[in-house]
Design goal:
Layout (H helix, E strand, L loop, with lengths): L12 H15 L17 H7 L19 E4 L16 E4 L1 H7 L16 E3 L6 E3 L7 H8 L4 H17 L2 H7 L1 H9 L3
Antiparallel strand pairs: 1-2, 3-4
Length: 188
């Protein structure tokens, strides 16, 4: 995970998402199931994808556009923070695997707030680990999001191997910005 600068909300976000969402919340104050919330946030999935250049906020790997390419993660879960269900500032672009793993968890590090080099990559294994000065919940973040699952480690190794073969930092920065940042930090 690397810091992700928060991007401004789309010009039509208020009209497409916030207003209809808040109207529904006002009409349904006792509806506590987040599964019942109208999914107005999906109306801006393309804008979210473009704003964050298709990069998963947690894996920091490019998400290919396809039928089920990316999801909107509510950083603070909509089941516990209904008032933020329709707020751009609570949205993180993420791959379906990260969104499913995160679920309703709270207390993980927010890519909008972390410091550079909070996490490190071991390029031999592809594993990530917290830096010595990382916040205490850095390990919890790795574990909850499954950032060291075999598929995750493999893709980091593949992007590193591709960089070693091609020496193409521009491509690596576009497709795997965390790998890119670690290549630079480790002076490779």
């Amino acid at each position: 995970m690397i810091p992700v600068p928060e991007q401004p909300e789309p010009d039509d976000f208020d009209k497409k998402v916030r207003q209809p969402g808040k109207l529904w919340l006002a009409k349904n104050p006792n509806e506590s199931r987040s599964s019942q919330l109208p999914r107005h946030w999906t109306r801006v999935l393309d804008e979210l994808y473009d704003a964050y250049h298709g990069i998963c906020a947690y894996h920091c790997i490019y998400i290919e556009r396809s039928q089920s390419y990316a999801t909107v993660d509510h950083f603070l879960p909509k089941s516990k923070h209904r008032q933020l269900a329709y707020e751009w500032s609570n949205y993180r672009l993420c791959c379906p695997a990260c969104n499913a793993a995160k679920g309703e968890h709270e207390g993980i590090l927010d890519p909008f707030d972390i410091k550079p080099h909070t996490f490190r990559i071991d390029f031999l294994t592809g594993e990530i680990y917290p830096a010595k000065d990382a916040p205490p919940n850095a390990r919890k973040t790795i574990d909850i999001l499954g950032l060291n699952e075999e598929d995750c480690k493999r893709i980091r190794r593949e992007y590193f191997d591709l960089y070693c073969e091609t020496q193409n930092l521009k491509y690596t920065s576009r497709k795997a910005p965390f790998v890119y940042e670690e290549i630079r930090r480790q002076n490779m």
